[in-house]
Amino acid sequence: MWLNTTASSFLLTGFPDMEEAHHWISIPLLVVYFSILLGNGTLLFLIRDDRNLHEPMYYFLAMLAATDLGVTMTTVPTVLGVLWLNHREIGRGACFSQAYFIHTLSIVESGVLLAMAYDRFIAICNPLRYTSILTNTRVMKIGMGVLTRAGLSIMPLIIRLHWFPYCGSHVLSHAFCLHQDVIKLACADITFNRLYPVVVVFAMVLLDCLIIFFSYILILKTVMGIASGGERAKALNTCMSHICCILVFYVTVVGLTFIHRFGKHAPLVVHITMSYIYFLFPPFMNPVIYSIKTKQIQSGIIRLFSLPHSRA
Fold first, then answer.
1. What is the torsion angle, in degrees rounded to the nearest 10, for the CA atoms of residue 77, residue 80, residue 86 and residue 88?
2. Residue 102's closest CA among 27, 19, 172, 31?
3. Angle 145-253-198 (CA atoms, 0-180°, nearest 5)?
4. How far apart, in whole angstroms, are the C-alpha atoms of residue 103 and residue 114?
5. Is Membrane set as a keyword in this record (predicted)?
6. CB 26 within 8 A of CB 84
7. Looking at residue 225, what DSSP letter applies?
8. Does pLDDT of 245 surpass 50?
């Protein structure tokens, strides 16, 4: 059935040909959703409440946790609406807003990981000036810069979506709105919207990755110059959580890109599953990584959950 170009909504899609299993699929998604809310919410609470965590490293971690919460709370509700209630219809305004926040927060996450790499670089390569360089004001400015860069870079794409006429079936291939999904339904010249995202990815996400890589080369060079083996291990250990988060984020980015570019003949369910992994795996893993690898976070969690017992 073909809809006219004045239609004001799109139709979201769950898992094609698996509609009968939607309720079962929603159970692990719901578990992951609440785990992400609990994990990242706990990190934010600890960093706000524990004065021992009022340091630049943990402020950046709070930014990462807030970004992960934003990504999850932007995508999962519409997914659960489709899987549970078969609520597939979404208005244009809501769809474009969701796409804006999804893509913006993805770039924010890359920027926060870069800021965290800068933090580790200063802490290890210039430790005597760490507190004077990364003041609270500067940390706030870095956070605002990361957010502004992402928000402004995505805005031209989403603004143009409002201008396009749409024809065809108005059916999207995911249970949430993505820019690349929406423009396939536009009955207009979409050259800019096809080329501009490539520029954004290369100018920001790829550049962030390269800067992080070179910063760790300099960090490794500095660490190898430390005479004491114990001090070397201690310095490297402060970077391990961040390195794990980087790997989780960029491996999923590469995996999603690989599937989209080279998996054109793969079943649609593979593309859909990979998109869920991209949006849910990093927010799920980041709190786990920092809880396991960072003693201060471990201590804070122990204090938090032992507090009621101590009061009793």
1. 40
2. 172
3. 65
4. 17
5. yes
6. yes
7. T
8. yes
